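Quarterly update from the structural biology core.
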Amino acid sequence: MTKVIIIGGGIGGAATALSLYRAGIEPVVYERTKQLREVGAGIALWANATHILKQLGLLAQALEVGCVITNYQFNSQSGKELVNITLDNYELPVIGIHRAKLHQLLWCNVSADKFILGETLERFEHQNNRVVAYFRSGLAVEADALIGADGLHSRVRAAILGLEPPIYRNFQTWRGLTNRVPKDYRPGYIHEFLGRGKAFGFMMLGEEKMYWYAAAKSSIKQSNTPVCFSKQLETMYQDWPRAIPELIAATEPMNILTTDLYDRPPKQPWSQRNITLLGDAAHPMLPTMGQGACTALEDAYVIAQCLQLHTDPSIAFKHYESARFPRTKMIVEQSLHSAKMGELKHPLTVGLRNLVMKIMGSAISNGFKSIHAYRA
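Predicted structure, tokenized:
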């Protein structure tokens, strides 16, 4: 049986382990943390991702712990609707789910001995047609192939493509989770509000949990405490529609996470013989299109298919990269373009953007559908 080392046990690594496991390939995941856990509060799984869950036999379980999303509504800062995209016309649902719940669904369906925790990769080397991974603890592991699913600052990527740093895109984001459901919330909706260099959105995740996210243009990376985040956000959004300051005030400061946004220009090759990359290690993208975790799920499923069809991992990884690069390149670029629209701050340019969105509502809706209609 083919044995594959997976570096990184997040959503991408866990999905890869399950996909390989179901394909009759032995995965072993090495995760540097001592616990398998996911942070980040909420996530929307679009139809291209719920297709993968269906293929892996997890869709029914995801629906039990998540919430079906029917509409994606873009609004102006004042709350006027700009575009309302219908999402329930696919053959598969769109689901709002807590990242930790999704992560648990993935790794709980793989034998526990396939996840080795507390191991940090130091280096790897080719030995004939095999690969040997060396860890900080002194552990050395040999396998037929290695997949780097170790995120934005991937050590596997650095070994293949060099130490070029990711690009900071001048945005800071905040994410929160609360039991408070605003009176104006429309069940099944993602409500997103676009302002001057700022945005705010919220949706239901299931289990009566409301997830919200905020983003603001920021040329300086932040290092505030959670209490400062809460006060800062209350000030930033005090004159926005009442549901927004209401959600911020209802969220415990310790339940607010912040992230500075980075991506990388699409670059090949991300494979080197029997070693390849997946998810953020291969194609980190901004969250504006909501496709980071979704494309990692696609990667996981495609890589398993390729390894099933081609017994030589080097050939399998060439086919995998050829299949995935055009799509992920397009989404990385569209996500960056969307973020640049969010950077606009002058009242005239913001007003023009909002007007264009209203006029181009059908085109925007079709653009979303073209991404979500993809089936790996």
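DSSP finds eleven helices and 18 strands in the chain.
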